Structures are given as structure tokens and as C-alpha cells.
Amino acid sequence: MNIVIQKFGGTSVSTEKRRKLIVSKVKGCIEQGNMPVIVVSAMGRKGEPYATDTLLSLVDNDFKSTNLLAVDLLMSCGEIISSVVMAEQLNKNGINAHPLTGGQAGILTDSIHGAANIIDVNTEMILNLLDDNIIPVVAGFQGIDSKGFITTIGRGGSDVTAAILGATLKANRVEIYTDVDGIMTSDPRIVSNASLIKEISYKEIFQFAHQGAKVIHPRAVKISEKHNIPLLIKNTFSDSEGTLINEFSSKSEKIITGITNINNRVQIRVTNNFEEAYNNLFDVLAENNISLDLINIFPKEKIFTIDRKDLDKLILIIKDLKLSFSYIENCSKLSVIGEGMKGRPGVMAKILKALTREGIEVLQTADSHMTIWCLINSNDVFNAINALHNEFDL
Description:
Layout (H helix, E strand, L loop, with lengths): L2 E6 L7 H16 L3 E6 L11 H5 L4 H6 L1 H25 L4 E4 L6 E3 L8 E4 L2 H8 L3 E5 L2 E3 L5 E3 L4 H12 L4 E6 L20 E3 H9 L7 H10 L3 E5 L7 E4 L11 E14 L3 H13 L5 E5 L3 E7 L3 H10 L3 E14 L9 H11 L6 E4 L3 E7 L3 H11 L3
Parallel strand pairs: 1-2, 1-9, 2-6, 3-6, 9-11, 10-12
Antiparallel strand pairs: 4-5, 7-8, 11-12, 13-15, 13-16, 14-15, 16-18, 17-18
């Protein structure tokens, strides 16, 4: 049996017109000799009636903080509604389909409500339906714990549902349908001539997902890489061939695959004017759930970045430790990603030259085997990404 997982996001299932487009994708999959398993997100986005954030607005914050089990039950409703509505649409168009909650689909989790971990998948129900030529339509983002309570698996959970089903069902591939044509070399809103990346490796796409690109959740990439299940990012609303993600991307002469950015960063400089506090600083920040990035450590100074939302808390902590510090707000982290840079000398020099020609100051850098990071002023993001996109002929 050639199983293909097809996951459709909230935008794709939000209207009947769009759901009819999904029907055509499912029919096409069947006509190619495959048996699809459908995974759906909640319909629409914040403000629309069945979106998860809209459902959460029905209860107050006090209730949400003290009744996590009940909140999970509420949040699961959006995907369950989508699964029923999508199954009805498929049946109306001659495709025998049946909706399933995450629990009915056999997704078993621990009991960490709101951020549950998947511990097992019992595929019996899904396989029975497929044997009867019935297409399962699975509510994404959710599972069930050992006590029978519904759990949710965190933001991006529908991608994770699709990936874990792909792994346990030994699917030929997992197709993630969204409202873009695939993974682009840069954000098209920033780079007007950004191009589609037709093939990319798991390692590269994990960097894209982790460094600001929001087309697919990093956890879904990790699961697919572990089980070597190809991922295909496609557009519900077009016939674009999409982006294929697999173990080994096609070898290309290009050094760089693409560029992403994360905004709202703050650069922090802490001086070693109080040895004990200086040495314990990172432990204290970790205890206060402040995540650090772009970390450079010197005997007399530590430089790192944080999210802007943590700045006020960090300032209080450092003042309490009696350490001297300074900070720069309105920063952005550029991530220049590509397996082609591995072992290739001069890539950092080329990046810095391109940015210098545009008069862009680089505040900090870091690098790994396939990613170079540059911290710049957020006002320079547009010019910086376009300059690098042109420099590396993306």
C-alpha cells in the first residue's frame, strides 16, 4: 500500500471554495495509485470562528492557567471541526472519508497539557479504514494520554501529527500544504525576485525553520529526518511543484541555499566587574527562563542576544547582580544557510564585503558548518538581505 500523508493548514480548510481545492489534491493523489491519510488544522486564523486563538478567547486567563486539561479539550475542538467538515466535503465529491480525533487515530501522549510529547502511535484504526478504502481525516495538533484525556502538542502540532503518522505508517512521503509555493531563497516580501528552492536537505530546512522561516515546524523536520520520510511543501492554491525535503539535496554549485531573518533581538554586553556574579550570570538567566543566542565569551566581557520581550526582566537581574552592562535594541539576526559553504573558505569574507558596500554595520557574527549568522540593525534588514541575495546569485 502506497501511503501518502497530506496535511492541510488552517488557511486551506477555511472556506468551502478552498476545501474543494483540497478535494482535487486528494483525488490527484488517489489517481496516482496512492492511499492518502489527511491531517487538518483548525479552520482559519485568529478572529475567525473556529481558529484555536478564537476558541481560547472564550475563557479567561485565570481559568486557562489553572485548568490546563480543560483548555486542551477546548483547543482540540478546532481541528475536530475541521476533520468532520473536510470528511463531509470529500464524501460529497465521491471520496469515502471518515473523521478521526488524534486519540482515535492512535496518537498516545504523556500528560503535559499544552505541550504533550508523543510517546506511541497505534495505527490499527487508520490501517483498518485504509483496508476498507476509506480515507482517514485526522485532527492534527492533538492526542490522548493514558487516562483517556485529550492533550495538545503545542504550536505547529499539525505538522508534527503529519510527520509522526508518516513515520509510523511508513509513508512514501508527507505533503505539507500551505498558502505558499514552497521554501523560497528569501522572504518574497523582502526580496521581490526570491526563487523557489526545488530540493533541500533535512539539515538545511531545519536551519530555515529554526531561524525564522515558518513554513514547517522544526519538530516535524526532525521526525522525518530520523525515519528518512521525504517531505514535500506545496501550495493548496496552485500547481507549483513545491519543495522536496530529503536526506540528500541535489548537489548544486551554489554555496548558499537561502537567507532568513529573526527580528526583535537585543544585543547585551556584560562587563566582568564582579567575578562571582559574572561567572554565574548564565545560570541565573537560565533559571529565569531567558533564552540566549549568538553567545561570545571573553575573559572580561560576555556578548549575547535575547528576545526583546525579555529585556526588562534581564535588566533587573543584571542590576541585582551589580554587573556593568550595555545593550542595543532594534536588532535582527540574519541567517545565511547552505550546505555548500561547508569547507569552503572565504564565505564570511564575501558576506561582510557585500554588507559593507551597502554601509551596513555588522554588530556580531557566529557560524556553524552550514549557517553564518550576522547581527545587524533592523532598519538595514531589507537592504542586507537583497545585497546578499544578489551577491550569492540566489
